[in-house]
Design goal:
The chain has about 300 residues and is mainly alpha-helical. About 65% of the residues lie in helices and about 5% in strands. The longest helix has about 30 residues, at about 145-175.
């Protein structure tokens, strides 16, 4: 194997070939790959307690078991990312069980509690759709071979999560009355949170090493549009309103982006635009449920750890 250097890596990426080992990476590629894997692993991991706390409100045993099956999938997806990180020199144990809750890197949306079965299925329809867009992009365009192959399983299972979200959202909407009103309320606060999921607008993101290294193929705004192009038509098809509409070839938000969000009240203040600095400050402070969810998987490790 020839020594790793930027010229050899650049030529490999231009040929559309896959990186298979650290000997082919530059320090910059390795750093960006680890960061991307960490965000993916943390997002999959934290979705498990977030979904579990809501799945306990399932309307039937069948629905609860579907929720548990989804949680099992998410934990397996997290394991794929953390396992690859361990092969790249990181400690799974330290990453999962020994980090401060605020050090986890996942979308802010999961820090706002999911408190009902309705909110859980809207998360399946919106959050899992966001994950499907992001991981689908990496699966299609990604340059790191081991992760690209691991995502074959992930994409198939994420599709199941999406179907659960869509089937239940449609069912709840058709039920009408109070059930439909609860669905609309969930969409009202979760839709803008998922729009945020894709990060800063492209005009504020001056440089993306992830794109340069082909760790992803689409920009934040392109991925956001991909998500809008699936979620907006679906919600409209089941009679649920969303604050966005199609204009030309793309989708336009019907509110200032970004704007102020009250996490405790689960309410957006569309008449109160804010800066991206304010959004970044909110993300870094984490939301109401961050510490509680991390404790759900760190407590047992600490309590039952076998010490030499």
């Amino acid at each position: 194997m020839e020594p790793a250097n930027s010229g050899a890596l650049e030529a490999l990426l231009k040929r559309g070939e896959l990186v298979e080992s650290t000997s082919e990476m530059t320090p910059g590629y390795l750093r960006e790959l680890k960061h991307t894997l960490l965000v993916s692993g943390d997002t999959e991991l934290i979705s498990a307690p977030a979904y579990y706390l809501a799945a306990r409100k399932a309307p039937s045993v069948n629905a609860f078991m579907t929720g548990i099956a989804i949680i099992q999938d998410e934990l397996a997806h997290a394991h794929i990312a953390y396992h690859i990180l361990e092969e790249l020199g990181e400690s799974q144990e330290a990453l999962i069980f020994k980090r401060d809750p605020k050090a986890f890197r996942y979308p802010y949306a999961f820090d706002v509690p999911l408190e009902s079965w309705t909110e859980l299925v809207v998360a399946n329809a919106m959050y899992d759709q966001a994950g499907f867009c992001l991981l689908g992009d990496i699966h299609e365009h990604g340059s790191y071979g081991p992760w690209k192959r691991g995502l074959v399983k992930v994409m198939a299972e994420e599709n199941f999560h999406l179907r659960n979200g869509r089937n239940w959202s449609k069912r709840i909407s058709l039920a009408g009355g109070e059930a439909r009103e609860e669905l609309q309320r969930a969409v009202d606060w979760m839709f803008p949170l998922t729009v945020e999921w894709f990060g800063l607008p492209d005009d504020l993101k001056q440089h993306s090493a992830q794109l340069d290294y082909r760790l992803k193929g689409l920009t934040n705004d392109q991925l956001r549009q991909q998500w809008l192009s699936t979620v907006v038509p679906f919600m409209e098809s089941i009679g649920i309103q969303v604050p966005a509409h199609k204009e030309g070839e793309g989708y336009v938000l019907d509110y200032p982006f970004p704007c102020t969000f009250d996490a405790d009240e689960k309410r957006w203040h569309f008449k109160d635009p804010c800066s991206w600095d304010a959004v970044l400050k909110r993300w870094r402070a984490r939301g109401p449920r961050n510490a509680e969810m991390v404790a759900l998987f760190q407590e047992s490790f600490s309590k039952f750890q076998v010490r030499a």
